[in-house]
Amino acid sequence: MRLVKIGIASVNTTVGAFQANTDRVLDLARKMAADDVTLGVFPEQVIAGYPAEDLVQWQGFIDHQWPELERFAKETASLPLVSILGVAVALQGVRLNCAAVVAGGKVLGLVPKEKLPTYNVFYEGRTFGHGQPGMAESHRGVPLGDYLFQFDFGTLAPEVCEDIWSADGPMRRRAYSGGELVVNLSASPFRLGFWETRRELIATRASDHQVTIAYANAVGSNDGLIFDGGGFVNQNGRHVLETPRFQQGFSSAVVDLDRTLRLRTENTTWRVDREDWVTAGGRKVPTLDCTQAVKTQRQKLTYPVPAHRSFFLPAPDTRRTARVALCEDILDALSLGVGDYFEKTRAFKLFGIALSGGRDSLLTLLIAHRYAKRARPDNPGSLIQAFYMPSPYSSQQTRDAAETIARELGVPFQVVSIEEAFEREKAAAQTMLGEAKLTPITEQNIQARIRAQRMWNWSNSCGGLFLQTGNMSEKSVGYTTIGGDLMGALAVIANVPKTVVMYLLDYLQETTGYEGIRKVLAKPAGPELAHDQVGEEELMPFPILDACFYLHAGEKLTPSEMRTALTAMFPEVDADRLGGYVDRFVRLFHQSIYKWVQAPLSLHIGNLDLDRERALQLPVVTGAAWLRGA
Question: Which positions does UniProt annotate for deamido-NAD(+) binding (predicted)?
Fold first, then answer.
């Protein structure tokens, strides 16, 4: 048996905080060594933080990383541990995103990332250069390129993030060249439902290439990207370890690398494929002999037996229901995003929320409070200030709901009427218009803008983080006010559809029993900027609105294709009415793009986000003729 204990770390980094990031890695490396870990695996770009985006174009940003990598090597020199961690280097004018192999006080090698994603939220092709098959360079006297690394316990094949997502990635040639343990360093953002996709992909790659895979992912949030952490160890298709998500730390598992080689001998398909690769002229990846760099201590390791002591019977089922998994993942992701933005910017002292007594601001409050309970468990409410700013159209019902939930959460609550300011601003606007009259929509927008201005004034004076509370569905059709409810420093639920907002609130009401949530849900959703406003009456039923958004923005269907799909989805709704909803959605969607680009930074939880700098990049100025009759 060749027993190896693999430690998988999730590290919460801040972009550019090189020393602090390295300190976190050092702390975990020492804890791993104390736990008899043989191989410590850390995330992509863990020294610099991810995503650094165009900061990598600054030579100083690159230069500051190497001394920290050397410091890590020096301070772990006495540990019987091999560590692999992410770093960026500059080579002949090219920036490379690398996995650094460290042991015995030295940086033994650098393996650059080959597959550079430039889609969705990623822009790596703009900033980094590609690693290449057969690459053999040197950086500061350290081998840099397409290498394997031989230690006293086995042969490692390092790679970085996207390399594992390509069927044409480096894993195939490295496995055929003798790599047994593939180590993937990742910074893969949280996306709804993506955890299972990662899990299945890693199992597939481990089975296809007959390797053991150790996968480590970043955790935390930088700007609007949220990283859920979590990692895997998978041996030749069998899951060995899944690590916790949404928290910094490490988990470990023991594998027998002799099992990986034995399974190769049994798998005739793998052997034949390798023979064909060699015959076709496949270039063998060279192996660097690192057996003298460190002597690992594996005497205490025991054979990996199932905790339930059966190789044939299933382990106890600890999986969450689909409902719990969806809700808890979203809530964990958004509270992590809010909290890291609050802490890492170092610009704010508390959160500020304009409570309307409606669903969106309620969910935003509950997300901020979820973070606050972790940051200040003894008094979470002290981190949040809630305001209720009634106008002539505000109801006693929404005021009571807002006051109730603030009291239940222990959040300071203040009522500041905008009625006088509303009347003054209407009069001033009317003076400017002369003969023309204020439109009803202008009267509504005045209220929203007064509230936003007051929140900004409060924020400027007390260092408060003004949270924007709008949802994705209403944002997609411009059901929001520039200079008003579209404003804020951070948009918490701007990428959460309205139907999901309501689903989350139902879940939270069931699990917490808060009376304030029940009171909010008892009233139809509406902005209360005019008499008896109901959002679904002014727009369309929210399930249909969200379906329109998904089909048009996500699946890229034309209006005629959308009508066909919606007829199948909502057969109880008259076809002509559905057609009207489609036409209305498409018109409002394309007219509202100019609003999105003025919205604040938002937290990302899916592939379909309304953020021109991240996911859905649409021109502001465009003709709509192609949509007519389509």
Answer: 445, 474, 595
Q: Is 355 flagged in the annotation as binding? A: yes
Find out whether 119 is annotated in a ligand binding site: yes
Q: Is 357 annotated as a binding residue?
A: yes
Set out the domains of the chain in order of their start, with CATH numbers. Answer: 3-300 (3.60.110.10), 322-627 (3.40.50.620)
Single-letter code of the amino acid located at 511: T
Is 469 marked as a binding-site residue?
yes
CB 211 within 8 A of CB 171: yes
Average pLDDT per run of 10 along the chain, which is 630 residues long?
Answer: 97 98 98 98 98 94 97 98 98 96 98 94 91 97 98 98 96 98 97 93 97 98 94 97 97 98 96 96 96 94 94 92 96 98 96 96 98 96 97 95 98 97 96 93 95 97 96 95 94 96 98 97 91 91 97 95 97 96 96 91 88 77 79
Residues 389 and 422: beta-carbon distance below 8 Å: no
| CA distances, 499 to each of 325, 474, 549 (Å) | 17, 11, 12
CB-based burial label for 328 (10 Å; 0-12, 13-18, 19+): middle
Closest by Cα among 276, 285, 163 to 213: 163
Residues in contact with 292: Cβ distance below 8 Å, sequence separation at least 6, in sequence order: none
Binding site annotation covers 474?
A: yes
Predicted TM-score (pTM) of this structure:
0.95
3-state secondary structure of 492: coil
What amino acid positions are annotated as catalytic residues?
Answer: 44, 113, 161
The residue to which tokens 């304030």 are assigned = 516
Phi, psi dihedral angles at 312 (to 5 degrees): -115, -30
Residue 497's SS3 state is coil
